[in-house]
Protein backbone atom coordinates (compact mmCIF):
# COMPACT_ATOMS: atom_id res chain seq x y z
CA UNK A 1 0.00 0.00 0.00
CA UNK A 2 1.35 3.41 -0.94
CA UNK A 3 2.13 5.93 1.81
CA UNK A 4 -0.72 8.24 0.84
CA UNK A 5 -3.23 5.39 0.70
CA UNK A 6 -2.08 4.13 4.09
CA UNK A 7 -2.30 7.64 5.53
CA UNK A 8 -5.85 7.99 4.22
CA UNK A 9 -6.81 4.80 6.05
CA UNK A 10 -5.50 6.36 9.26
CA UNK A 11 -7.42 9.59 8.52
CA UNK A 12 -10.61 7.67 7.85
CA UNK A 13 -10.27 6.01 11.26
CA UNK A 14 -9.56 9.40 12.88
CA UNK A 15 -12.63 10.90 11.25
CA UNK A 16 -14.72 7.97 12.46
CA UNK A 17 -13.62 8.59 16.05
CA UNK A 18 -14.26 12.30 15.64
CA UNK A 19 -17.74 11.71 14.20
CA UNK A 20 -18.64 9.44 17.12
CA UNK A 21 -17.42 12.05 19.58
CA UNK A 22 -19.36 14.79 17.82
CA UNK A 23 -22.65 12.93 18.28
CA UNK A 24 -22.34 13.81 21.95
CA UNK A 25 -24.52 12.56 24.77
CA UNK A 26 -27.38 11.35 22.62
CA UNK A 27 -28.28 9.00 25.47
CA UNK A 28 -27.87 9.32 29.25
CA UNK A 29 -25.84 6.11 29.24
CA UNK A 30 -23.08 7.75 27.19
CA UNK A 31 -20.25 9.08 29.33
CA UNK A 32 -18.21 12.19 28.59
CA UNK A 33 -15.16 10.04 29.36
CA UNK A 34 -15.93 7.82 26.37
CA UNK A 35 -16.57 10.77 24.08
CA UNK A 36 -13.24 12.27 25.13
CA UNK A 37 -11.54 8.93 24.46
CA UNK A 38 -12.82 9.18 20.88
CA UNK A 39 -11.40 12.73 20.70
CA UNK A 40 -8.02 11.46 21.84
CA UNK A 41 -8.16 8.61 19.34
CA UNK A 42 -8.97 11.03 16.51
CA UNK A 43 -5.87 13.07 17.32
CA UNK A 44 -3.65 10.02 17.78
CA UNK A 45 -4.71 8.43 14.51
CA UNK A 46 -4.47 11.65 12.52
CA UNK A 47 -0.92 12.25 13.79
CA UNK A 48 -0.02 8.70 12.80
CA UNK A 49 -1.41 9.43 9.33
CA UNK A 50 0.94 12.40 9.11
CA UNK A 51 3.84 10.23 10.21
CA UNK A 52 3.05 7.75 7.42
CA UNK A 53 3.04 10.51 4.80
CA UNK A 54 6.37 11.74 6.18
CA UNK A 55 7.75 8.20 5.69
CA UNK A 56 7.97 7.64 9.44
CA UNK A 57 6.90 4.48 11.21
CA UNK A 58 3.89 5.29 13.44
CA UNK A 59 4.84 4.82 17.07
CA UNK A 60 2.68 2.38 19.00
CA UNK A 61 1.61 4.73 21.78
CA UNK A 62 -1.34 6.74 23.03
CA UNK A 63 0.96 9.61 24.09
CA UNK A 64 0.17 12.56 21.85
CA UNK A 65 3.22 14.45 23.08
CA UNK A 66 5.48 11.59 22.01
CA UNK A 67 3.93 11.55 18.54
CA UNK A 68 4.28 15.32 18.17
CA UNK A 69 7.85 15.24 19.43
CA UNK A 70 8.77 12.60 16.88
CA UNK A 71 7.15 14.58 14.06
CA UNK A 72 9.00 17.75 15.06
CA UNK A 73 12.31 15.92 15.49
CA UNK A 74 12.22 13.97 12.24
CA UNK A 75 10.60 16.47 9.87
CA UNK A 76 10.60 20.14 8.94
CA UNK A 77 6.97 20.60 9.95
CA UNK A 78 6.33 23.40 12.41
CA UNK A 79 3.62 22.25 14.78
CA UNK A 80 1.24 25.10 15.65
CA UNK A 81 0.44 25.88 19.31
CA UNK A 82 -3.17 24.63 19.07
CA UNK A 83 -1.88 21.23 17.95
CA UNK A 84 0.55 21.14 20.87
CA UNK A 85 -2.38 21.89 23.19
CA UNK A 86 -3.88 18.54 22.19
CA UNK A 87 -1.39 16.74 24.47
CA UNK A 88 -3.96 17.23 27.25
CA UNK A 89 -6.12 14.64 25.50
CA UNK A 90 -3.62 11.88 26.32
CA UNK A 91 -5.22 11.45 29.75
CA UNK A 92 -8.41 10.31 28.03
CA UNK A 93 -6.59 7.39 26.39
CA UNK A 94 -6.03 5.43 29.57
CA UNK A 95 -6.82 7.06 32.92
CA UNK A 96 -10.47 7.88 32.30
CA UNK A 97 -11.18 4.40 30.99
CA UNK A 98 -10.66 2.90 34.44
CA UNK A 99 -13.30 3.85 37.05
CA UNK A 100 -11.98 5.33 40.26
CA UNK A 101 -8.74 6.77 38.86
CA UNK A 102 -10.08 10.20 37.87
CA UNK A 103 -12.62 12.89 38.52
CA UNK A 104 -15.65 12.61 36.22
CA UNK A 105 -15.22 14.47 32.93
CA UNK A 106 -17.43 17.55 32.61
CA UNK A 107 -19.36 18.80 29.61
CA UNK A 108 -16.95 21.74 29.28
CA UNK A 109 -13.97 19.38 29.22
CA UNK A 110 -15.71 17.32 26.54
CA UNK A 111 -16.38 20.43 24.45
CA UNK A 112 -12.72 21.45 24.75
CA UNK A 113 -11.59 17.97 23.74
CA UNK A 114 -13.91 17.95 20.73
CA UNK A 115 -12.74 21.38 19.61
CA UNK A 116 -9.06 20.43 19.90
CA UNK A 117 -9.57 17.12 18.11
CA UNK A 118 -11.44 18.79 15.26
CA UNK A 119 -8.69 21.37 14.83
CA UNK A 120 -5.91 18.77 14.84
CA UNK A 121 -7.63 16.47 12.35
CA UNK A 122 -8.23 19.43 10.01
CA UNK A 123 -4.61 20.58 10.36
CA UNK A 124 -3.26 17.10 9.61
CA UNK A 125 -5.51 16.76 6.57
CA UNK A 126 -4.16 20.07 5.30
CA UNK A 127 -0.56 18.96 5.88
CA UNK A 128 -1.22 15.72 4.01
CA UNK A 129 -2.77 17.58 1.07
CA UNK A 130 0.38 19.73 0.79
CA UNK A 131 2.52 16.65 0.20
Short description:
The chain is built from five helices and no strands. The protein is mainly alpha-helical and 131 residues long. It has a single domain, classed as Four Helix Bundle (Hemerythrin (Met), subunit A) (Up-down Bundle), CATH 1.20.120.330.
Tell me the β content. Answer: under 5%
- The chain-level structural class is mainly alpha
Number of domains: 1
First-last Cα distance = 17 Å
Indicate the overall shape: globular
The percentage helix is 55-70%
In total, the number of strands is 0
CATH superfamily: Nucleotidyltransferases  domain 2
CATH class: Mainly Alpha
Number of helices: 5
Rg from C-alpha positions? 14 Å
Series of secondary-structure elements, N-terminal to C-terminal: HHHHH
CATH architecture assignment: Up-down Bundle
Overall average residue pLDDT:
95
In terms of topology, how is this protein built?
Blueprint: H1 3-23, H2 32-53, H3 64-74, H4 81-85, H5 107-129
Helix pairs in contact: 1-2, 1-5, 2-3, 2-5
Explain this structure to me?
- The structure is a single chain.
- 63% of the residues lie in helices and 0% in strands.
- With 131 residues, it is an all-alpha fold.
- It has a single domain, classed as Four Helix Bundle (Hemerythrin (Met), subunit A) (Up-down Bundle), CATH 1.20.120.
- The longest helix is centred in the C-terminal third of the chain and has 23 residues, at 107-129.
- The protein is globular.
- It starts with a helix and ends with a helix.
- The model has no long low-confidence stretch (mean pLDDT 95).
Amino acid sequence: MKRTENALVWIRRAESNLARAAVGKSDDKILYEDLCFDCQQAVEKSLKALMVVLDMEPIITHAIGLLLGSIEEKSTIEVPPFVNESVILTDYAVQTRYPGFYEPVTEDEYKTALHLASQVVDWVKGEIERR
